[in-house]
Amino acid sequence: MHKSVQDITNMKKEKKKISVITGYDYTLASLCDKTGIDVLLVGDSAGMVMLGYENTIPVTMDQMCMFTEAVSRARNNALLVADLPFMSYQASIEDAINNSGRLIKAGADAVKLEGGSIMAETISAIVDVGIPVMGHIGLQPQTTMLSQGYKVQGRTKDSAMKLIQDAKELEEAGVFSIALEMVSHEVAQIISETVSVPTIGIGSGVNCDGQVLVVQDLLGMYDKIKPKFAKRYMNLSEDIVKSLEDYKNDVESSTFPAEENWFSMDPEELKKLREQIGS
After folding, report:
1. Which of 54, 114, 181, 193 is labelled catalytic?
2. CA 159 to CA 9: how far, in whole Å?
């Protein structure tokens, strides 16, 4: 039985840290799930990591449903949360509910959407129909990047107060947790101590209730962007390139395939075949 939303919210009450991994495909998600990771997040960052987009804005609902379906088939233990992509929830509450439902049908247990107090009414409506929501404040890749660029949030008193107020309003709207992306660690700590729901840090310091990393960043597989907050536990990209180079060389030198990699006929059957074709 996989973890529930209640299991995750209880972890804050029990002062247990929450581990979250962002993944997009069956193979890596199944490996993540075996480790006992608490939450698998199907992020719209799939557009960049898996599809090669420059940012998350082009990602569609169809794409998010496909990635969510793949990860849902891999997980047995973790809670599964899926991102609502850009403009799948901002235009109307009806859109937000319908598209949240699509992600739940694709296998998610909950959805995540970006935005502070301005999204409180939308979040409340989604929660009211029975779909759990994870909020997301601080740097919001779908919109903040358009106006401000890649900047740490909450470095001034006024911006910090706005983030704290956003977090409170999201809590009141019914979110079960809040992702804090690139929020100064002081403000992230204040928010984590202020709200009753778990906070999940993305470059927001150690005092959040949980942390999230993209699995390809953690494994050193995605080199296009190397954010400061993404700790690399391995550098698989170098190992993968070396393995592919070795494969290419083996093919060119006829070292691969070797006898253990191919299949053979019965010798008597081969003899009969050669006799029949005259070779």
Report:
1. 181
2. 27
pLDDT in tens, 52-91: 999 999 999 999 999 999 999 999 999 999 999 999 999 9
Is residue 225 within 8 Å of residue 212, measured between CB atoms? Answer: no
Known catalytic residue: 238?
Answer: no
The CA distances from residue 20 to 4, 17, 195, 201, 202, in Å, are 14, 10, 19, 9, 10
Please give the pLDDT value at position 224. 74
Q: DSSP letter at 16?
A: -
The distance from CA 218 to its chain's CA centroid, rounded to whole angstroms, is 12
Q: Could you write out the DSSP letters of every residue in 39-63?
A: EEEE-TTHHHHTT--SSSTT--HHH
> How many angstroms separate the CA atoms of 27 and 221, rounded?
14
CA distance linking residue 98 with residue 61, whole number of Å: 11
Strand, helix or coil at 208? coil
> Could you tell me the CA-to-CA distances from 92 to 87, 89, 122, 169 in Å, in that order?
9, 6, 8, 19
